[in-house]
Amino acid sequence: MTAPLLPPSVPDLGGLRLPDAAACAVTVARLQGAREPRVVVVGNPNVGKTTLINAVAGTRLKVGNWSGVTVEKREAHLSHAGRRVHLLDLPGAYSLSPHTPEELIARTALMDEAPDAVMNVLDAGNLERNLYLTLQLMDFGLPVAVALNLVDEARDKGLTVDAPALSRALGVPVIETVASRSVGTADLMSGVLDRATLGVAVRYPAAIEEAAQDLTSCMSGLSTLPPHAHRYLALALLEGDPSVRGRLAATGHQPLLEAADAHLAALEARGLDPLIEIAEARYARAGDLARVAVPQAQARRTFSERLDRLTLHPLLGIPLFLGLVLLVFRLTFSVASPFVDLIGGPLQDILSGWASAGLAWFPLARDLVVGAIIPGVGTVLSFLPTLLVLYLAMSFLEDSGYMARAAFLMDRAMRSVGLDGRAFIPLILGFGCNVPAVYATRTLERRSDRVLVSMILPFMSCSARLPVYVVFAAALFPRSGSWLVWGLYVLGMAVAFLFALVLRRTSLPAEGGGVLLELPPYRFPAWRVLWKHAWRRTASFARRARTTVMGTVAVVWLLLALPAVSGQRFATVPPQQSLFGVVSQAVSPIFAPLGFGNWQATGALVPGFIAKEVVVGTLGQIYLGEQAAAPAPLGLVAGITQTLGAAWDAVKASVSALPTVLALPSLSAGPSADTQTPLAAALARAFTPASGLAYLVFVLLYTPCIATVGAMAQEHGRRVAWVTVAYQLATAWVVGLIVYQIASRVL
Amino acid sequence: MSASPLAGILNAIARQPRTPAELARDLGSSEGALSGMLRTLQGGGYVQEATQTTDGCECGPCALKSMCRNADQDAPPLHLLRLTPRGEAYLRRLLPMTN
Ligand SMILES: Nc1nc2c(ncn2[C@@H]2O[C@H](COP(=O)(O)OP(=O)(O)OP(=O)(O)O)[C@@H](O)[C@H]2O)c(=O)[nH]1
Ligand SMILES: [Mg+2]
Q1: Which of B57, B58, B73 to mutate to test the interface with A (most CBs of A within 10 A)?
Q2: Domain assignment of residue A373, given as a range
Q3: What is the model's pLDDT at position A119?
């Protein structure tokens, strides 16, 4: 057994001083002899080897800022301090285990060129990776000197390498250089010629060291193998290196190969895998050396990494996410509500006035437009500003890179309830619209996961539900609207997770493959791109208002116009006695325990099945249609001036509300009671805060819209779709009941 | 990850296939430092590139497209790594208790 011969100055990182015997005939003295010393230059690709040689030798070998510029050996001669030196430029190699032709060239040169010394060039900014090769070099019995190159770039990255410490730990001279500016090159040449020495080698696990020693002693009598390569060859044999085996077989070293095989079999019998254990020991030591040389490496992180430590923090991550969502709603409220009030109030009044004057001779059409389309579709459209701001904020979170982090957090939460981690994609998509989210469940591997995620997904509050929350918030909670909306979103997520927990059939961890997230670096999104994204989504909401909402509103108008009681006539029947009113009234007792057992509220829920924003449309239709008398028409000029004046007021209100977004203690973001739209005022009369809250909870949780149900039936079959409709109705009723019973005692 | 960095990588990949960037984040290391180790592990036959399945999923309208590694077919393929039988065998020997 060899005893380590560590001088006291070397920090004991478990390294091994090779006995001088391993150095065999190669000695530093030869460098000072008469013969021109041969120095090989080795290092990872693109670390500046050729640049260094050109700098010291004044040659013009080819350099380039990519790997693999030097693909064969190149030579240069120079004289340093009166001595002639022969430099051999080798192609870049990450290791001496030949995975590439370049690595094979480098290794062959080290074995066969009988170099007098090795100049190992390192990238100071990437020490840990570069040191692997250095440690392989240490297994050769060759004097080594290290050029710590690219220190300028490392410094720009905030890395300062402690060259003396690295030198002590490696046991060889380490000289800092900036090859491209010829800094340190003279020192380097002195280091190579006068001080290059055998370094501190890696100490491998005992069983492997013993086998290597044994193989080395087998080689000692063989003049056919270069003596300085014995230890390296022994280790390569234990690593099963095919090219070394091939070479030995071709040169008639069969007994050596047999000895190696015997050792390998013995090691394997002891449960050892030398290939990986040798590499493991080198990497572990490379890591230790890097930490000795760059102690502050851990401290310096990129901006994204530092931010991620906060955003992905196991405890703070979720609260931060929820806080950001709250901020989004506060922004949405304070910026958008003046415009919502404008469209839902003065603008609608002016339009109604014009429409009723223009259609005065066509009472039925007038009724449809003024009593249904304008209050119904108009109410839905009045939320365009809200959605535009919401979509802008969401696009900001997506493009800045934050949404990927939110998904990462969800992934963690999902796995903690035993679901496939990838379930977060459909769930996050669900905040936008549930339909594409259902299709996105296809990325999940197990059918049970796909079904389960689809079933809990509608609890994620899609953007179509936001108008309902906003109008009720304006009516009943004008001072804490954003908190209310935030609370509903959080409630939806909580219910979803609760069901995931209850419904999951298996607690198997997810298996790999497929979609995983790449966390992009944070960046400030371009406004143009944000605007484009947000505009596209807002436009599609507006398109639905023109089609789905318009159609539903027309059907509801028809149902409201059809008398269900004899003696009444089409279109003049009071709403309570219309088909719609009578059926709604019949159903409404079901909701009495939830506090909103009136026919108007109940009735609005039914068309909400078509699309959830239709709930506000229908409420507008019922409550505003009831106040039948259309406002007196304004003149065209007066109408336009009044609109412009109101729009200017809205802009001012919106801007002045901005500073309140961040004022967390004040709950005042949101419309103030005195600027309520007529619909909000009507709702304030029809609902109490407790019944309004229960209504919103019901809207949040009850059956997904028909498009989502259709998507589910298509993806998972009708049974799943119907079960979802039924169980969500039940859930919505039960949670609504609980909320009402508590809220009516508290509020 | 100082004592046995390679085993640390194999362990992380065993739980879920990872890209080098994800691994670096998980292990508190850097991609630069890991690249050599991954090369060694791949060269030694302990890890291999996992094939990705997009599974006919519609990426067109997806809001998360910018973050999804499967979305853009034109983007250079990501190196998603998973264990080979040899890698699994080595891990099993290291941790005879688990699995
Ligand atoms: N900033 C800086 N750039 C350097 C330094 N040394 C080399 N470079 C640049 O790094 C790039 C690579 O240099 P080369 O000399 O071709 O590297 P190499 O190690 O020979 O590369 P291969 O032959 O491909 O393995 C070139 O663009 C050099 O100008 C240095 O110390 N500082
Ligand atoms: Mg070169």
Answers
A1: B57
A2: 319-396+416-506+514-746
A3: 96
